[in-house]
Amino acid sequence: MNGEIGIFLDPYASKEVVRFVKDFTSQHTGRVVSEARQLPQLDDCKLILIGGGDGTANKVVSHLYNSGAEYHIGLLPSGTNHIFYNNLLQIARQTPEQFVKPRQEGTLRPSYFHPGKFGEHLFLVDCGTGTLEIAIGNLNKRYRWVPGAIRSKLIPVLSYLNTLKPSDDVTLNIFSTSPYLGVVKAFPNQKVDNSRSLTHAWIEGRLKAVRLNKLLITLACWSRGIVPPQSILKTEQVNTDCDAMQGQSLWVDGDTIEIRQDAGMQVKVRRERRVFEIVAIDLSLPKGQQIQPNSNKPYPNGFRQHTR
After folding, report:
1. In sequence order, what DSSP letters do the residues of 56-91 get, joined into one string?
2. Whether 170 and 191 share a structural domain
3. Which of 174, 187, 232, 297 is close enough to 128 for a disulfide, judged by CB 3.0 to 4.6 Å?
């Protein structure tokens, strides 16, 4: 497989991306897989295309991270959540032609991204152990059929209501590599590219009622584009390894996964030292038109939303 282009395509990929992949593989030698167990088939490829959302990108990048090899990765938006893709649009995007163009000796690709790591779990955007985050991940899976624009407004409300159960605790404990949490600019001081820091956000309070009120105020502030005060939502910039308490479940890049280790176990959270070369593949430009190396500027209307 050496010299081929590896493609991991979400089984529920959009028609636009499926058409692109068919056209792409008719012009370039490539191998397309769509199941996690097939990922080792791409290990010999130096160029990797991912068609999927945050969870799919995490799955592929985590596998490549564990393989230890160097890859140039291109991301196509074709899943449920596209926070990572939209972040990359701001710092590093290429046309398909630029992505496959051989690198000249001594030159660097335009993206230098440090993923985060929670214990042994890699995250590209964010992770958390709070009850709100876990509810968001579970509800995202349940309501994948709801259009993304509606779901982004509905899920936080449903997740908050889910915390009203008397038997459940109320916590928020998030680590983020991105200024965005969903479509909300929750952590404006967080940088994406060439950054070794993380934003840690959490809610404090001895009584459940106090934490619940703080959570409601936090969601209300975020929905209006307001940064909650420190008295409501504690935030800090983490530049070195820090300790965090682990729950039974972990929210990683929008999905909730079960953790087999003991709840309450202390783990290390950090921004990885290893740099990944990842770019957003921009299909919006006419074929043949190139993106200049220094033109990675934000779109004038902010993040573009890609939904199925």
Report:
1. HHHHHHHHHHHHT---EEEEEE-SS--HHHHHHHHH
2. yes
3. 174
pLDDT over 90 at 201, yes or no:
yes
For 45, other C-beta atoms within 10 Å of its C-beta total: 22
- 266 and 205 share one domain: yes
Non-local (6+) Cβ contacts of 188 within 8 A are: 179, 227
* Mean pLDDT score across all residues of the chain: 82
Range of the domain at 82: 5-113+275-281
Note the pTM of the prediction, 2 decimals: 0.83
> Alpha-carbon distance 118 to 242, whole Å?
10
* Residue 204, φ and ψ in degrees, nearest 5: -115, 160
Torsions phi, psi for 116 (to 5 deg): -95, 165
Question: Do 201 and 248 fall within a single domain?
Answer: yes
CATH at residue 205: 2.60.200.40
- List C-alpha distances in Å: 72 to 61, 98, 112, 166, 238: 11, 12, 11, 48, 27
Read off the DSSP letter of residue 14: -
| ∠ CA 211-207-255, rounded to 5° | 40
Residue with tokens 């081929």: 4
d(CA 58, CA 195): 18
Task: Check pLDDT > 50 for residue 126.
Answer: yes
On whether both 226 and 133 belong to a single domain, the answer is yes
User: What gap in Å lies between CA 5 and CA 3, rounded to an integer?
Assistant: 7
| 98/138 same-domain check | no
Q: Which two tokens stand for residue 127?
A: 């992770």
